[in-house]
Design brief:
With about 325 residues, this protein is an alpha+beta fold. Among the domains are: about 140 residues, Jelly Rolls (Sandwich); about 70 residues, no CATH class. It has a six-stranded antiparallel β-sheet with strand order 1-3-4-11-6-9, sandwiched between helices. α4 runs antiparallel to α5, α5 crosses α6 and α6 crosses α7. The chain is elongated and about 75 Å long. The relative contact order is 0.08.
């Protein structure tokens, strides 16, 4: 579900936004100081039993009144404030939120979230029973900040963003797994301990952290100095844990890095746009420091030299296969 009020006439933007949001989120009363200056857009996705929503919206006040609470929706909203400022209040307690802060709003009780500036929010709506099962000792969720595990919180943010680009409509098991990963990360960020923490780490956090390590490798292929220690610093984990995460893949950090570099070079060699580039320059650009080593490992993986791969690609591009078939 994608909705933007910004393309509508000014006098209709706020009312249209209020109506659409009411359809797809928990019941809220909304108000804004200037309906004619109001701007908003949101995107919502359902993954299993959870909902993920991004909001880019101007100043607005949202209230969950006692009357609205009677609708029976007692879900928990994990609110990540990406930009802007906000005030969140429940149980007579008030949280001041700045960019980067994360807090839980509890739909089962009255409360309010006021965006005092134009803001961007990333929201995860979780059925209460799902999170309560992982945090049985947490008696109240409203107003709780996700600050017990900074790494889990960062991974949650990036994982939520990535979810918006995934197509999980054709796979119920994949959607279920994705949902469980998200809930596990929330539980860890809230301070899950003991057996539940061990289970969340094994079931949810480890696969996500492993994917994060692999993303760092992919993003840093051209840096010849990039290694496991740098990846560990970026992700806020230890070097030992980096290696532990990759054990499940059956390959080491260096093997993953080498494999991705070779694949990148091979992709370039097959692209006719780069046919005039020196192979040595390509190899060095992709992070190889020793040309003889590059040639040796390339041939070991592809059973051909880089020159052979390039010539074969040029031959096919010029119609060599068609000519041969005829």
């Amino acid at each position: 579900m994608i909705f933007s009020a910004n393309t509508l006439p000014e006098r209709k933007r706020f009312s249209a936004y209020r109506e659409e949001l009411a359809k797809w989120s928990c019941g809220l009363d909304l108000s804004t100081p200037d309906q004619f200056a109001f701007r908003a857009e949101f995107e919502l996705r359902r993954i299993g039993s959870v909902e993920i929503m991004t909001h880019t919206v101007s100043t607005i006040e949202t209230v969950r009144t006692p009357r609205l609470v009677r609708d029976g929706d007692d879900a928990l909203l994990v609110m990540l404030l990406l930009h802007g400022r906000a005030h969140q209040s429940q149980f007579n307690e008030r949280n001041v939120l700045n960019a980067g802060d994360t807090v839980i709003c509890d739909c089962g009780y009255p409360g309010a979230l006021n965006l005092v500036d134009s803001s961007k929010l990333l929201t995860l709506k979780i059925p209460r029973i799902k999170l309560s099962a992982e945090l049985p000792r947490l008696s109240r969720f409203a107003g709780t900040r996700l600050d017990s595990d900074a790494v889990a919180r960062r991974l949650l943010s990036s994982y939520l963003y990535g979810t918006l680009d995934l197509d999980l409509s054709g796979s119920v098991p994949a959607a279920q797994l994705h949902q469980d990963h998200l809930i596990d990360l929330v539980a860890l960020a809230l301070g899950a301990g003991g057996e539940m923490r061990a289970l969340a780490e094994q079931r949810g956090a480890q696969p996500i952290r492993r994917a994060a390590v692999l993303r760092e490798i992919e993003a840093s292929l051209t840096d010849p100095t990039f290694d496991a220690s740098i990846a560990a610093v970026r992700l806020g984990i230890t070097v030992r844990y980096v290696h532990h995460l990759l054990e499940a893949t059956g390959r080491t950090f260096s093997e993953h890095q080498l494999d991705r570099r070779l694949a990148r070079v091979e992709q370039i060699l097959r692209d006719p746009r780069y046919a005039q580039r020196r192979i040595a320059d390509i190899a060095f650009e992709i992070g190889f420091k020793d040309l003889s080593y590059f040639n040796r490992v390339f041939r070991r993986k592809y059973g051909a030299t880089p020159t052979d791969i390039r010539h074969a690609a040029i031959y096919r591009h010029l119609g060599g296969d068609d000519a041969k078939d005829s």
